[in-house]
Amino acid sequence: MINLPEARVTVQAIGHEREPVVIIDNFTGQPERLRAMGEGAHYYPAGADYPGRRAPADPSYLDLRRDLMMQVMARVFGLTRGVQCEVAAFSIVSLAPGQLSPRQRIPHHDHSDAGRVAIMHYLDGPESGGTAFYRHRRTGFEAITPDREAAYAAALEEDEREYGPPPAGYPTQSERFEQIGAVEARVDRLALYRGRQLHSGIIPDPQALSEDPAKGRLTVNMFLFGS
User: Fold this and answer.
1) Residue 154: which CATH number?
2) For residue 1, is it within any domain?
3) What was the pLDDT predicted at 49?
4) Structural domain range at position 205
5) Max Cα–Cα distance, the chain, nearest Å
6) Percent of the chain whose pLDDT exceeds 90
7) Is it the case that residue 134 has pLDDT exceeding 90?
8) Neighbours of 127 (CB within 10 A)
9) Nearest Cα residue to 212 out of 50, 40, 49, 34
10) Is residue 141 classed as helix, strand or coil in its secondary structure?
11) Is the CA virtual torsion 85, 14, 80, 146 positive or negative?
12) In this structure, are residues 41 and 55 in contact, taking their beta carbons and an 8 Å threshold?
């Protein structure tokens, strides 16, 4: 039987729209085991949406905190009928700034559905960066809901006409986006937020990025969905 450390839970309400971000520290009590699994995994290029490489991860370790997770899903995100894991992957941010596509140079949202919750499980400390949340200046949007998708897409085109293509580099505060909150990376910290929130990884030192999971910015990323 695993003796879990006491979990520390914090709930933040981000920005004007007060979207929730849940932080759970000491989630597993065994981050070294997860990191060893991540270092031994087989990675593949993640494609257009993620600036690096990914490998399948087993999400069953969430059951270590099953009761807590179900409480968070119900009380914070309103998912009371059940929750399933859609995707679970070890992830390594590894692209050099000049390799980023235009869409990877600005904050993004994962899905406009309110029932999709993203999980970031940090396996490194603050030096690896964390996750930042943004407001789109032209529209004031902080979360992209289904009824905002068309207006947001049109506003991004207006941004490009006015400012030109996003400069090469990982997303930061700019004339396009205002940072409205952040989660600092800490070992064995879990962050949960709706995928509709505009967000991006914080990359403090792009020169330190590596495809080697023993050296790189290693996290576990998951997407849960429910109703």
Assistant:
1) 2.60.120
2) no
3) 83
4) 8-226
5) 59
6) 96
7) yes
8) 10
9) 40
10) coil
11) negative
12) yes
Q: Is residue 31 part of a domain?
A: yes
* Residue 25 backbone dihedrals phi, psi, to 5 degrees: -95, 155
* Residue 3 resides in a domain: no
Is 126 within a domain?
A: yes
3-state helix, strand, coil split of the chain in percent (to 5) is 25, 35, 40
CA 195 to chain centre: 8
Confidence at residue 146, expressed as pLDDT on a 0 to 100 scale? 97
Please give the order of strands across the beta sheet that includes 8-14: 8-14, 19-25, 189-194, 116-122, 217-226, 83-93, 52-56, 44-45
Closest CA to 192 of 117, 109, 115: 117
Cα 140 to Cα 48, 135, 144, 198: the distances in Å are 26, 6, 10, 11
Q: Which ranges of 138-214 would DSSP assign to H, the alpha helix?
A: 149-163
DSSP string covering 184-198: ---TTEEEEEETTB-
pLDDT tens-digit map of 44-89: 999 888 999 999 999 999 999 999 999 999 999 999 998 999 999 9
Alpha-carbon gap, residue 201 to 191, rounded angstroms: 12
Domain total in the chain: 1
